[in-house]
Every structure is written in C-alpha cells, then in structure tokens.
Amino acid sequence: MATLAGVSRQTIHAIEAGDYVPNTTLALQLAKILEVRVEGLFSLEDDLAAPPKPISVDLIGTGEPARAGQPVRICQVGKSMIGVSAASQAVMLSDG
Asked: Which is nearest to 44 in space by CA: 67, 65, 21, 62?
C-alpha cells in the first residue's frame, strides 16, 4: 500500500498508530487504494463516540470477588445483566 500511495512503510505505520495525520491528498489516495470513502479511514476527534457508560452486572462462576475494571463477558437474562470472567473457564448453571 505504501508503494501505491507513494510513501514509505514508516509513514503508513505512523498513520495507523495515530502518530501522523496525512494531508488531504494522501488521505484521498489511501481511500482510493482501499476502495473506501475517506471518512471510513479517518475521523475528527469530536466525531468519536463517547465511551460506553459502566453498567452493573451479577458476576457468576469465578468463586472470587469481582475486581474494579475486571474484563467480563455480559449478557441479558430476563431483566438481569449477567457477567462471567473474560478468561476462558467452564461455567455450569443450575436449573434452580
């Protein structure tokens, strides 16, 4: 892609890492090469979505108390939000 756009691999890496903002011409060239709209590659900081708000879940299957910031997989069961540790583990749910 760097060769097609006429820039170095380091430039592409810097763009991907967010360390370099390309000029309009380069942004349009990259979009053309990738066959996407330039808006699909780049956005203004103001356009970025706000991070999701924290939610409370019932953590199951760990046998340990939850830690702040602990990654979990969540799903809705009825009106409750249930979470299990994101670490691979076998979880058995009872019928009761």
From this structure: 21
- The domain ranges of the chain are 2-47, 50-89
Rounded Cα distance between 42 and 28, Å, is 10
Could you tell me which residues come within 8 angstroms of residue 38 by beta carbon, excluding any fewer than 6 positions away? 27, 28, 30, 31
Q: Which string of DSSP letters, residue by residue, matches the chain?
A: -HHHHTS-HHHHHHHHHTS-PPPHHHHHHHHHHHTS-HHHH---GGGSPPPPPP---EEES-SS---TT--EEEEEETTEEEEEESS---------
> pTM above 0.70?
no
Residue percentage of the chain with pLDDT more than 90: 28
Task: Assign 3 a pLDDT band (cuts: 50, 70, 90).
Answer: very high
